[in-house]
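Handoff note, outgoing to incoming analyst
You'll be picking up this chain. Sequence as last confirmed:
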Amino acid sequence: MADGPFWRRKALAEMTADEWESLCDGCGRCCLNKLEDEDTGRIYYTDVGCRLLDAKACRCRDYQNRSAEVEDCVRLTPKNVGELGWLPSTCAYRLVAEGKDLAWWHPLVSGDPETVHQAGVSVRGRVATSETDVPDEKLVEHIVSWPGKWPKGAKRKGKGKRHRPRGTIAKS
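Most recent structure output, in case you need it:
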């Protein structure tokens, strides 16, 4: 579709810097600490956020300097997105790399940065603590399954919070 949205028309490597950055839905799931089973390679998410994660805004507190501030922060690139098995299944970068469309709650689709939170996709209200407060050996006590899953209703358009059109009066 030549006149469709850029994420349907372009490969990740063809996107401008602004287009690339706008793909981030602001969920914060990638900023949760993860554990990898050395034997199986399985990834386990925790409810422990990176020390730079603003858990309410679901954004990095120092995005421009994150790699200097957090040694193991992984910068997403068109080349590495397909190799990062720990990216959540809801991640727009992962979805586009897999040839899939963005979900209805993605701000580029909905026009509203709050829909990612309303759909239950973001980490807002779900981060237990910061990595600065949990020693590495205690991370296993914070393993959670929800970051690897699609929340109920997040797959289907119109599910979740419904809004009444402005100017209408609810009938009782």
